[in-house]
Each structure stands twice: as C-alpha cells, then as structure tokens.
C-alpha cells in the first residue's frame, strides 16, 4: 500500500507548479497579453500575482497541510458541524466541469502533434492553418476521440497514485517543459525583427492598457495558480509537516512567472518577425504559431517541440483536477484509487462530449447565447472559480483558529512570525476585495454602473 505523501519537497513543488502551469499560462496568457498591451499587462499581472495569488496559495496550503486530509474532510475537521465542507464539494464539481472541456483542448494538442509528425501542417499559409484549425475542432470523430485519449493519459497517471503516478510524471514533465521552452525561445529570438516582440512584452506602454485589461490581469493572476477549487488544499495535504510552505509557494509563483515570460518570448518575437498581429486572440497558438514556424528552417521541428511542452503543461494541470475528486472519493484508501480514477475519468469524458462537439455538429446548440464549450468555460472561469476563491479566503479569516494558522505558517520557517501578520492582513482584506472586483466585472456590474 503506497503512502499518500510526496517523496520530497522537490516533487511537491514540481507537481503543484505543474497544476498551476497549464493552458492558462501557455495558451491564455500570450493571447490576453497580446490583446491588452503586452508589457504593461505583464507588469500588472506580476503585481497582482504577488499580492493576491501568493497569499491565497499559501492559505490553501495551510488548510491542506494542517489536516493532512482531502478537500472535503479538511473543511469538516476545521469547522465541524458546519456547512463549510460544501466548499470542498464545490471544488470537486468545479474540477469535474473544468476537466470536461479542458481535456477537449488537450485533445486538440494531441491532434496537432499527430498532424505535425505526419507532415499535414507543412507548407500551408495563414489561411491554410486557420482552415486546419476549423476542420480539426469541427470533426466530431477527431474531437471526441482525442478528448478520450487525453483523458486516458490523465487517468493512467492518477490511478498509479501520488508518488508513483503524479509525482513521477511531474518530475519528468516539468523539467522537460522548461528545456523545450528554452529551445523554442532561443529559436524565436534569433529571427529577424524579434526584438520588436521582446520590446512589446517587456517594455510597458500604459497607453495600451485599458481598465478592462487591468481587470483581466487580476483575473489571470488568480486563475494562473489553480486557485479557488481546493486543488492546492489536496496537494498540500500530502506534504510533510517539516516543509516550509512559504518557500514552496514562492517557488511555484516564480516558476509561474518564468513560464509566462517564456511563453511570451516564444510567441511575440516570432509574431512580430513575420508582421503578424499579436492581438489574434485564442487562435494565437493553433493558427498563428504554425504560420510562423512554417517559414523558418526546421520550423516544423520547433513547432513539434512547442506542442509537446504544451501537452506536458496540459497534462500536469489535468492530473490535479482529477486528483481532487479521486482523493475525496477514496478518502485515503489506496485500494480504491484505480477503480475510482477510471470511473470518474469516464464520467468526465461523457460530460465533455457536448464540449467536444460544440464547434461542429452541436455548434447551433447554445446556452445563454453561448455554445456549450464556451458556456461551461464561462461558468467555471467567471463564476465558480472566483466564488470558490472568495469563500476560501473567508473560511481562513473566519473559521480557522489563529493558533492553527500560526503553527502551520511558521512550521519549518524561522522568520514566519514576522510575515504572518502581513499575510493575514492580505488574506482578510486585499484578497477578498480583489476577487469581488473581478467577479463584479465579469458579471457586468461596472458596465451597468458606468453605462459602457
């Protein structure tokens, strides 16, 4: 029977960083930064991550490590006889829905890897790559089949357990991700005119940043760390009491910054080098990047490397989404892990089929004016995640005993007491206020007030 603990702090940090570094960091960050001014957006994103994301990440760590239990039972132990355990169940539902459409995009990555290997992406122009993207996501057999294949990869790893599955995969995939990123970034930076893209990413021009862009940066800093669904509560529950949570949280945030920087340096220099528009939006990875790499020597090799690192990032995030559900269902009984992983994974596959078909045969089916994929994405990203994060911050402020917080915060950290008061002020006031601002923005309150 495997002990459900990380074998080392290194394994935990890489697994937790893998959870945070997913499609949001590599796919979403570049196109949101491209639309919202590049360098100015990046700077604001860093500020918000440090003052909103980091305190909340530490907070989730404190909950999980203090109880050494799954997301549901953690809240039950700290607040017995209350309804706070529903916060853990809300996280399970959110992770379930998130993985149901996240795996669809994971399937697209697998398709693109296959098309790159077989040469189907060679020699096309910009319009050709957009056509390939549309054909790929609208083909029901491809979309559903590779959605299933991506989930199978996730299930196989999670079924093996924390050390033998998630940690072992993360220890391989995360260093490989950084190495592959560096190779692609070096190639991108050697293109003619690449420095214009570097300047776009690193030199803030606040005239390009709108108030909406500031709110996007706040939201991105929050979503980029997998916060709000108690994933980090689950992951930290497998962590030894001797480990320094502040160091671990800081390392994860720094790795997140590095990946966002590398994603920008891989994409924007190449985009500017070929005179393309950085504000292309979601197709930036799947349509614009192939266009760029098709025009440079060995371009398809570099595209393949980028897609593989993109796959690694997607998988490591997906592991955490399935793990929070499996851990809550098995309640530490490792004999149930394999069966639970397959049952839950297959249920997620079934629920995700409408999302996989949203750009094809189900494109006319809409919920609240959105195709099914976008409706589930909106529900998760703009409602469930911010509400979950707000409730976690309130739970820490209102229900966790101060002595327990101090004990966990200072464990393995000699200078923890000096930082505790500052952290508590942020988690009580700054974090909830920031989340409320994001939430009011996404539901359109500011548009209604200002009439814009």
UniProtKB/TrEMBL annotation:
The keyword Membrane applies. The keyword Lipoprotein does not apply. It is found in: Membrane. Keywords: Membrane, Symport, Transmembrane, Transmembrane helix, Transport. It comes from the Bacteria. InterPro entries: Na/ntran_symport, SNS_sf, YocR/YhdH-like. It is a multi-pass membrane protein. The chain crosses the membrane at residues 12-33, 39-59, 93-114, 141-159, 171-194, 214-239, 251-276, 296-322, 342-362, 378-398, 419-446. Its main location: membrane. Coiled coil: none annotated. Belongs to the sodium:neurotransmitter symporter (SNF) (TC 2.A.22) family. This is Transporter. It comes from Shouchella xiaoxiensis.
